[in-house]
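Quick log. Single chain, no ligands specified.
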Amino acid sequence: MNTNIISKYLQLLRKKHNYTQDELAKRLDISRQAVSKWETGAAIPDLEVLLKISKLYGITINDILEPNIPTKKITDFEQLSEVPENELREILEQYDMTSLVTASMGASPEINNLLEKLFPDVDYKMERNRIGRVRIDEVERIQQEIVSVINLRALDSELL
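-> predicted structure:
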């Protein structure tokens, strides 16, 4: 369960159904602040509210907790260079540098060069040494999260 993806997906669902945070809160009989916390990743709805959300949107709770994000922009971490640099930087700034450097450990030299260009203040070699060895599934998890966030953002842009 990835709270970053869930929070962005909940926000996308709300916008897709043309609800403001206030309107959604009223429909679910909760506070607007609760909706805001979900959408910023500070909290996840409890089971009872997840059930209400799933009924409201006509999806399953599992669809909310493990969303299937359609490919709108990229399918793979190696395609980061296809995302405009200003947009990519804005997305990647959401991640702590340890996660970003960990994701770069499984990337091609081209993608590593792009990341170093976007974040020149980061000493990637020193960070890699500090992090040490990382399981490949951890690298892949972070890379897939970044790809999903990019695709969610593309979906969100389509709604505007």
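The two ends are 28 Å apart (CA to CA).
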